[in-house]
UniProtKB/TrEMBL annotation:
Alphabetical keyword list: Purine biosynthesis, Transferase
Catalytic activity field: N(1)-(5-phospho-beta-D-ribosyl)glycinamide + (6R)-10-formyltetrahydrofolate = N(2)-formyl-N(1)-(5-phospho-beta-D-ribosyl)glycinamide + (6S)-5,6,7,8-tetrahydrofolate + H(+)
Family annotation (CDD domains): FMT_core_GART (cd08645)
Protein name: phosphoribosylglycinamide formyltransferase 1
Domain Formyl transferase N-terminal: 4-184
Pfam families: Formyl_trans_N
Length: 208
């Protein structure tokens, strides 16, 4: 069975598109039920519309507190019977307790650096400016911390030949596009269980 996913994106949506392409090519066993965005001008919306994927816009200004907005996101996720929440360039930190608890270990994010190095925004520029030779991609569970949830998958990218932060970002992005769909696909084949902070993949059927 294809896993039902919701994409949360605020911008360009290239990871969203990459996952969609892999699904359509039969390499990612998932079904995108909805795109949720906080940005009415996100190019990701066009991608969803072209592919007949429902779009839910959440207006930050309609909520007094961010927690309330996240409660609403939880309702949307429930409505679309979401099994896995995929953050793909979603630029707000999830703060709602009920959302984080209800979807514990079912919300994943992609970060364009090898965590725990270079957390937060502009990770590729941070890595380039720091002069590191190797950076990469991290896919991790989302918890209450910033880019601090348990790591699911990492892939190193040699950035020693990059001449700018932009080149660094472009080189890492290519790897993101392949890696994210692979990780999403793996969720349909099993589960990641946590031993402390270490994730371990278990194929179905899971023995209890
Ligand atoms: C990606 O670099 C991702 O790692 C980061 O935000 C960017 C989103 O890009 N979290 P896109 O919207 O998927 O093109």
């Amino acid at each position: 069975m294809a896993i039902k996913i919701a994409i949360l994106a605020s911008g360009r949506g290239s990871n969203f598109l990459a996952i969609l392409n892999e699904i359509n090519a039969g390499r990612c066993n998932a079904e995108i039920k909805v795109l949720i965005t906080n940005n009415p001008e996100a190019p990701a919306i066009e991608i969803a519309k072209k592919n007949s994927i429902p779009v839910e816009f959440i207006d930050r200004t309609k909520f007094k507190k961010r927690e309330e907005m996240d409660d609403y996101i939880k309702l949307l996720l429930d409505k679309y019977k979401t099994e896995l929440v995929v953050l793909a360039g979603y630029m707000l930190i999830l703060k709602g307790k009920s959302l984080l608890e209800a979807y514990r270990n079912r919300i994943i994010n992609i970060h364009p650096a090898l965590l725990p190095a270079f957390k937060g925004e502009d990770a590729q520029k941070q890595a380039f400016d720091a002069g590191v030779k190797i950076s990469g991609v991290t896919i991790h569970f989302v918890d209450e911390t910033l880019d601090g949830g348990p790591i699911i998958y990492q892939e190193a990218v040699d950035i020693s030949d990059c001449n700018s932060a932009e080149e660094t970002a472009a080189k890492i992005l290519k790897v993101e596009h392949k890696a994210y769909a692979k990780v999403v696909d793996s969720f349909s084949k099993g589960a990641y269980v946590l031993k402390g902070r270490r994730t371990q993949f278990i194929n179905f059927p899971i023995k209890k």
